[in-house]
Amino acid sequence: MHRAMCNKGDGVSAKLARHRFGMFRVEDGLGRALALAIVCGAFVSLPVLSVFASFWQASESADTLQHLIATVIPTALMETALLGAAVVVGVIILGAGTAWLVATCEFAGRRTFEWALLLPLSMPAYIVAYAYTDYLQFAGPLQSSLREMFDWQHGDYWFPEIRSLAGAAFVFIVVLYPYVYLLARTAFLARTAAMMEAARSLGQTAWQTWWRVNLPLARPAIAAGALLALMETIADFGAASYFNLQTFTTSIYRAWFSLGDRVAASQLAAVLLVLVLALFTIEHRARGRARFFTPTASQRPAPRVVLKAKRSAAAFAVCLVPVALGFIVPVLLLLRLLLPAWQTVDWVRYAQWLANTLVIGAAAAMVALVAVVSLAYTARSTTRGAPGVLVRSAVRLMSLGYAVPGAVIAVGILVPLAAFDNRLDSVVRAAIGVGTGLLLTGSVLALLYGYLVRYFAVAYQAVEAGLTRITPSMDASARSLGSTPFDAFVRVHLPILRPSVLAAGLLVFVDVMKELPATLVLRPFNFDTLAVVAYQMASDERLGQAALPALTIVVAGIVPVTLLSRAISRASGVDQRE
After folding, report:
1. Is 325 a residue whose pLDDT tops 70?
2. How confident is the model at residue 193 (pLDDT cuts 50, 70, 90)?
3. For 453-479, what is the HEC assignment?
4. What number of other Cβ atoms are within 10 A of residue 528's Cβ?
5. Which residue has the higher pLDDT, 24 or 386?
């Protein structure tokens, strides 16, 4: 009896020990999650809070702000609004129109256009602007040939000015329409035969069916794509600056570099950030209210309309135009610029620019992957209670960085880092008589910080998609074999995640290669990347020398577009079978 009581006591003690251990484990998990959430939240919030904190120093920039309000801001508001409206209308027409043709019609070249319509995504807007401006400007080959052919002089004829608001809208439309195409095509493919038959049984014509059934089905996707294109347009600096437009982004740089007022630049950045976050909120709420219908395997997709003869040729031409304007023609124009300047290329300097770009891109990808994998793995392991809420909140907060323009991130990082460096220099100088100078401002660390804030969401989405392939049974099997969580991660999770991790790193690497505003402001002295060099040379009208760095960026941009195209082809494999 005594032995039984002892055994019973031992069992109770074991249960209490397990309960206490469970409490400690929960508390430890809560502490780790809380620490992670605080660090991540502060990491991303610093650039945002620093630009809003500039309003506490309004007296320091009162004169500059009055000058900007009187001369710059009204024009910036007007041109930003007109440019954004034109781009939204254009990308909806091009993106939704081509998506409708590819998703619902059968015509010559449809399968090729299915992925080719994504190619303009590999072309940064500022590079397309360089190519078209050189060819279409007054001194360009086209107008020069027309004057020589018809013996015209300046003022004898009218030709559209490429360096204008309309020219900038054209460039943004042909580069950004794939956002609408990609989302709208998926929505149009969700049509089922039952929907079309029900509409016809109610006496609806083909036009009425499109207007009352197909368009409402795709409207949320079209709106989401158009808003993404609008946010990209508002955040752009390279193309808008090259076209001499006074947008909000170019006004930030003008206040900082031309007027030398960092406070005024921060205040303009805060206004731009509010505008972008408002657009982001509208897009998020629109997707939140939308309910997408995905046909099951038992539901037949709506058959494609087979186009013949003239209609097939017309559909082919409609799909070819945006691909040609957004990718083929700019590449050919860049090659035309490069060939005459090939013999004058400074290969030593080009190798240095390329090395800088590759090194900073690889470093940014590594930093992003470490942060993303750590946070994604923590979010997967911590799903319940307060720790799960904290980690998910941290992920959402860090994902907002992709919606923030590079100019805002650059200003938001540079201001607090400069204040820290100046304070540290004064303290050390007072203590030992020797200053520290600028340790963080204009350093590689500041540049990597900006890249991480900007592109965290890009890498996180890819890694999170890979984590969904790891089932709870895999974790249970690993634990039953005595593996620690770290062992399970290295030996089980990481091999499964390898493709997703590589894809995430590649996406960040290519985005860093193309990034211009943040790199232009945060880069160390005499540290030039391909994007910075292409912008500087094009600004100096040395377009022949800018062609090689620009083409290098384009070639790198084709890689993620190819991966996306392959994913689309795999996803629509059933749809493509006749």
Report:
1. yes
2. low
3. HHHHHHHHHHHHHHHCCCCHHHHHHHH
4. 20
5. 386
Closest CA to 517 of 417, 456, 447, 443: 447
Measured CA to CA, the distance from residue 484 to residue 486 in angstroms comes to 5
Rounded Cα distance, 550 and 106, in Å: 36
Helix residue ranges per DSSP H, 109-214: 110-116, 125-136, 141-150, 165-188, 193-201, 206-209
Res 28 pLDDT > 80: no
- Strand 105-106 relative to strand 305-306: parallel, antiparallel, unpaired? parallel
What φ, ψ does residue 152 adopt, rounded to 5°? -90, 155
Residues in Cβ contact with 395 at an 8 Å cutoff, skipping those fewer than 6 apart: 40, 375, 376, 379, 460
- Length of the chain in terms of residues written: 578
**Per-residue tokens: 297:** 């395997």
Helix (H) / strand (E) element for 368: namely: helix 347-381
Q: What is the pLDDT of residue 61?
A: 64
* Residue 160, phi then psi, degrees to nearest 5: -60, 135
Q: CB atoms < 10 A from the CB of 529, how many? A: 28
67, two tokens: 């000058």
Structure tokens at 10: 């031992």
Cβ(456)–Cβ(401) under 8 Å? Answer: yes
CA distance 414 to 443: 10
Contact 406, 276 (CB under 8 A): no
Structure tokens at 72: 């710059």
Q: What one-character DSSP code corresponds to residue 344?
A: G
Contact 432, 417 (CB under 8 A): no
CA atoms of 175 and 254, how far apart (whole Å): 26
- 245 Rama class: left (phi>0) / alpha (psi -120 to 50) / beta: beta
DSSP string over 14-25: HHHHHHHHHHHH
Structure tokens at 463: 């890694």
Lowest mean pLDDT among 143-147, 282-286, 460-464: 282-286
Is residue 374 within 8 Å of residue 35, measured between CB atoms? no
Q: In angstroms, how far is CA 465 from the centroid of its own chain? A: 18
Give the pLDDT of residue 327.
93
CA distance 531 to 520: 9
Q: How many CA atoms lie within 13 A of 85 on its CB side?
A: 6
In angstroms, the Cα distances linking 112 to 107, 115, 303, 308, 514 are 11, 6, 19, 18, 26
Over residues 218-240, mean pLDDT? 83
Which phi and psi angles does 105 have, rounded to 5°?
-120, 155
The kind and range of the H/E element at 498 are helix 494-514
Structure tokens given for 455: 């592109």
Whether residue 304 has pLDDT greater than 80: no
Predicted model pTM: 0.78
Instruction: Compute the distance between CA of residue 458 and CA of residue 118 in angstroms, rounded to an integer.
Output: 18
Residues of the chain with pLDDT > 90, as a percent, come to 14
